[in-house]
Amino acid sequence: MVLNYIWIALIVIAILAAFIQFCISGDASILNGLVDSTFSSAKSGFEISLYLTGVLSLWLGIMRVGEKGGAVQTLSRIVSPFFVKIFPEIPRGHKAFGSIVMNLSANMLGLDNAATPMGLRAMKEMQELNTQKDTATNAQIMFLVLNTSGLTIIPISIIAYRTQCGAANPTDVFLPILITTFFSTLAGLIATAIVQRINLLNRTVIAYLGGLSALVAMLLYLITGMEPSQVEYLSNVASASILLSIILGFILLGLIKRINVYEAFIDGAKEGFSTAIQIIPFLIAILVAVGLFRASGALDLMIEGIRYIVGIFSSDTRFVDALPTAFMKPLSGSGARGFMIECMNTYGADSFVGRLSCLFQGAADTTFYILAVYFGSVGIKNTRHAVGCGLLADLVGIVVAIIICSLFFS
Fold first, then answer.
1. What's the rounded Cα separation, in Å, for the pair 275 and 99?
2. pLDDT digit string (tens) for 369-396?
3. What pLDDT, in 10s, does the model give residues 186-209?
4. Residue 44 has pLDDT above 80, yes or no
5. pTM for this predicted structure
6. What angle do CA 374, 375, 378 make, to 5 degrees?
7. How far apart are alpha carbons 122 and 358 in whole angstroms?
8. Under a CB-based contact definition with an 8 Å cutoff, are residues 396 and 192 in contact?
9. Pair 144, 371: CB distance under 8 Å
10. Per-state percent for the chain, helix, strand, coil, to nearest 5
11. Is the dihedral of CA 352, 354, 359, 365 positive or negative?
């Protein structure tokens, strides 16, 4: 329901903004640009869906092999004590736990292509427990918020873009992004737990969160003594090695269990194809709305309004120039990436604005894209408190990014 209102608001505001600009300037290209944006966004949505068809077929095929070989169940047992506490609706030992941990692990390692299929698989498995098929369950909302908060340990893509934009030390945003995204994820987890009345103050949750914090601290200690090129090399090797190890491990376990690995893969791949087809309408709807909002100039007007208001209370309005990346990130990952690169090209990769835009890019994930794709894949229309909790995590990420960037780079 909330997503419905947001979708309508984006389109209405965009069209009204374009008409106002046309009435003031008389420039017909404004209206033509808006029309062109609808077609290009629809085309982009379909192209993304086609790309997802191959990726989904591959990874859901691999997941099916892992499921029949017992690998997913093993992962589920390892994290079950923690997940049972934050996903109380899911029965202990349920297959959804394996898919959830695979998805969240892929996100933390920056393996986006692997994370989406695993996330869609987890959403479908949780939907099997849903008694109201068009309404999101608490477990599905918690899972989605953890996705939208975008916990990232290795922001390899941001480091790569900073290298291309001429940053003297492309990895200098590594620690700030890790801190920012950690607070964003923690905020999303706490907000959702409060709404769902989940008790996080128990030994199991504290132990797991403490262990994760210790692991992150060890990683930071290891990386601080490395050269930027070594960090980038290690990140690339670690990400690729983990990805290939998952595929190899699943296949070997399947052989040990004496299952027909090929047939299991084909069975899962068929599921990936049907899931990708189901996503197309939802994906096109959200991308068209985002494209209109961006092309109309409504986002630019909002930024200038914020600059004026901030200027009344403070003389330092530098962070406002990076806000387009922050505002676009919940709507469109590619749009936010474009704003980030634009900020680095315009103000310099090592400028405060350039670095802050990188922190905004890494602070959260594409909330509305994930809402449209994940919920759309299982036909959920009533998202309940998913949007509110997801956007709260995004907001915390924005505020923390500004504070952390000021501490590190002012």
1. 16
2. 788 889 988 889 888 999 899 889 989 9
3. 899 999 999 999 988 888 888 888
4. no
5. 0.72
6. 95
7. 29
8. no
9. yes
10. 80, 0, 20
11. positive
Q: What is the pLDDT of residue 294?
A: 76
Pairwise CA distance, residues 372 & 109, whole Å = 23
Would the pLDDT of 113 be above 70? no
| Two structure tokens written together for 375 | 């919920």
User: What are the φ and ψ backbone dihedral angles of 399, each rounded to 5 degrees?
Assistant: -65, -45
| Span 76-103, average pLDDT | 82
Q: Are the C-beta atoms of 253 and 69 separated by less than 8 Å?
A: yes
Q: Residue 195: what pLDDT?
A: 94
- At 89, is the secondary structure helix, strand, or coil? coil
Query: Under DSSP, is residue 169 helix (H, G, I), strand (E, B) or coil?
Result: coil
Question: Which pLDDT band holds residue 334 (cuts at 50, 70, 90)?
Answer: low
- 67: Cα separation from own chain's centroid: 25
Residues listed for the chain: 410
For residue 21, give both structure tokens: 């600009």
In angstroms, the CA 180 to CA 244 distance is 29
For 251, the enclosing helix (H) or strand (E) is helix 228-256
Q: Which residue has the higher pLDDT, 130 or 59?
A: 130
Rounded CA-CA distance 55/123 in Å is 17
Given a contact cutoff of 8 angstroms between Cβ atoms, the answer to whether 34 and 18 are in contact is: yes
Q: Is the pLDDT of residue 220 over 70?
A: no
- Cα 242 from Cα 102, distance rounded (Å): 11
Cα–Cα distances in angstroms (integers) from residue 116 to residues 23, 42, 104, in the given order: 43, 20, 10
Determine the Cα–Cα distance for residues 175 and 178; give it in Å rounded to an integer. Answer: 5
**Above 90 in pLDDT, residue 138?**
yes
CB-based contacts of 390: which residues, under 8 Å, 6+ apart? 144, 145, 148, 149, 188, 330, 367, 370, 371
Residue 17 is predicted with a pLDDT of 87
Task: State the residue for tokens 């990726």.
Answer: 55
Q: Which residue in the block uniquely carries the two structure tokens 């189901």?
A: 278
Q: Measure the N-to-C terminal CA separation of the chain; round to a whole number of Å.
A: 42
290 and 381 Cβ atoms separated by less than 8 Å: no
Summary mean pLDDT of the chain: 81
- Give the whole-angstrom CA distance, residue 136 versus residue 264: 29
Tokens for 150? 């975008």
